Amino acid sequence: MSASAIIMMLVAMTILWGGLAVAIWNINRHPGEEPEVVHRDL
Amino acid sequence: MSATIEHSEEHRGAFSSRKVFILAAIGSAVGLGNIWRFPYVAYENGGGAFIIPYLVALLTAGLPFLLLDYGLGHRYRGSAPLAFRRAHRSAEGLGWWQVAICFVIAVYYAAVIAWAARYAFFSIDKAWGDDPEGFLFGSYLQAGDPGIGFDFVSGVTVPLVLVWVAVLAIMALGVQKGIGATSVVFIPVLFIAFIALVVVALTLEGASTGLDALFTPDWGALGETSVWIAAFGQIFFSLSVGFGIMITYASYVGRRSDMTGSGLVVGFANSGFELLAGIGVFAALGFMATAAGTTVDQVATDGLGLAFIAFPAIINEAPAGALIGVLFFGSLVVAGVTSLVSVIEVVISAVRDKFEMSRVGASMAVGIPAALISITLLGTTTGVYVLDIVDHFINRFGILVVAVASMIALSWVFKKTGLLREHLNRDGSVRVGTWWQWLIGLIAPAALTFILVNEFINNLQKPYGDYPTWMLNTLGWGLAVAVVIFGFLAARMPWRDTTFLGDPEIQAREDERSS
User: Fold this and answer.
1) If we measure between CA atoms, which residue out of B314, B452, B446 comes closest to residue B395?
2) DSSP conformational letter for B493
3) HEC secondary structure over B218-271
4) Which residue of A has its CA nearest to B261?
5) pLDDT at B320
6) Cβ atoms of residues B83 and B72 within 8 Å
7) Residue B152, strand partner residues
8) How many CB atoms lie within 10 A of CB B206?
9) I want to staple B119 with a disulfide (CB 3.0 to 4.6 A). Which of B128, B329, B400, B500 is the partner?
10) CA distance A35 to chain B (A)
11) CA distances from B167 to B119, B176, B184, B340 (A)
12) B364, B51, B454: which is closest to B215 by C-alpha?
């Protein structure tokens, strides 16, 4: 692989997979309020 | 919570937690397009440089539109027609338009899953022999001349029936025990299977040639309008936004959930999976090119050609061909089922809300006709042509048009984006500023309108494929017009007296104050 291809692959990985990691870290910091009762739709 | 709202939610069902909702939303967003469309779109539009327009499209149109759907569904807590109706009494038709589109998509989407399931088994003994293309259209699909015929092909019909039985069972089980439980199991399985596929593909000789072709940047491409159109189109089609799915799913989440944080996870998981798919697919195509003594551009393709012609050729040559085949086609099936479930849920949820039907009743009332139409039109020797035309037109002149219409209507006609922004910010971990309203009201619709006009002109200048005009006029243009007409006729049907048509959030707050 050429150096430019390797760099762009790493950039894409860092932004997209890194973005996912940060997004998951963010929601884990904000657990929010889960519903008290889980309704079963019948 | 108000008795009215509580009764309504008890009737509709819900996801047990935010985690289940996120997995279901990822299951909807990650579909066949992530695997067989993104890699080729990226390769054809600047390679490594494509990441720039792709990110711009994700951040300025994809994620903002996803949050619009989340805000609408979460605030008004209903299926697409009910959510639009609660937003404004004149808006309901937009919801039914989306419902009609989803019904059409479900009908043909199931067929591709059935083909992929069959090909997972074909992979074991490489049933396609040395001619995957001849096998696909000849031995397997037995494709005749374009038209609509009723000569059933058992190799397609039987797996198609099984797909529908499985999907109807999931739908009848309900939001949590059906859709939620399926997503909780299938999404980790999909990610693990695809990572395994990528690892195997990376060990093949020539894998680096494929990755070089995919990631080498062509910076000159950034000056081409078509590259930016491709980026916005890919993001839009990939995220499952604009046709009711995310509205419906968001209505099943707890009232105080963090929707903006969830949206970021879903958006980046979807794009992250696309990148993974790009690496796996192009590593395999690099191997194929090396084995054939040619270049990657000679073997690179997308869609049905990639899945059912190029991959069988790769499986023929690769050292662990059967394993690659089972992982690849298995991933297509899993990704397809979680997306199909979300598409058909839009219709079932709408029918349940409008007619206050039971879960099983609505699942059967929607699913059985959909399955019968699907088997009748797609299980035959002409099914591949029906699929190709309907998919081409309903994506462009169905989904794109309703997406633009709903954004413009909510922003400029009904002026609801300010209210939805406040709603998203109430419990959202990521603040949404007024810039979001500009993105939704101006940038995203402008980009999509540009794509739409471009597509419209292209399709008028050069009719799609080599199909007879009557097929394009009925299954293509005709169907795109029919879903609009259906949408606005369905909106004229009255709601049941017991259906609450006000703003559930206002009602809930009033009840909280008075209790």
Assistant:
1) B452
2) S
3) CHHHHHCHHHHHHHHHHHHHHCCCCCCHHHHHHCCCCCCCCHHHHHHHHHHHHH
4) A27
5) 85
6) yes
7) B380
8) 18
9) B329
10) 5
11) 19, 14, 16, 8
12) B51
User: Which sign, positive or negative, has the C-alpha torsion B72, B77, B83, B89?
Assistant: negative
Share of chain B above pLDDT 90, in %: 79
Tokens (6 digits) for B83: 């959510």
Please answer whether residues A4 and B48 qualify as being in contact, where contact means their C-beta atoms are separated by less than 8 angstroms.
Answer: yes
| Cα torsion through B309, B310, B314, B317, rounded to 10 | 60
Of B52-56, B303-307, B436-440, minimum mean pLDDT range: B303-307
Domain boundaries, chain A: 1-27
| Calpha distance B55→B61 (Å, rounded) | 10
Structure tokens at B404: 């633009």
What tokens does B425 get?
């910010």
Residue B494: is its pLDDT beyond 60? Answer: yes
ipTM (interface pTM): 0.93
Optimal mutation site among B6, B275, B360, interface A, most CBs of chain A within 10 A: B275
Query: What distance in Å separates residue B293's CA from the closest CA in chain A?
Result: 18
Distance CA B368, CA B301 (A): 35
Residue B347 · residue B107 · CB < 8 Å: no
| Inter-chain touch A42–B262, beta carbons under 8 Å | no
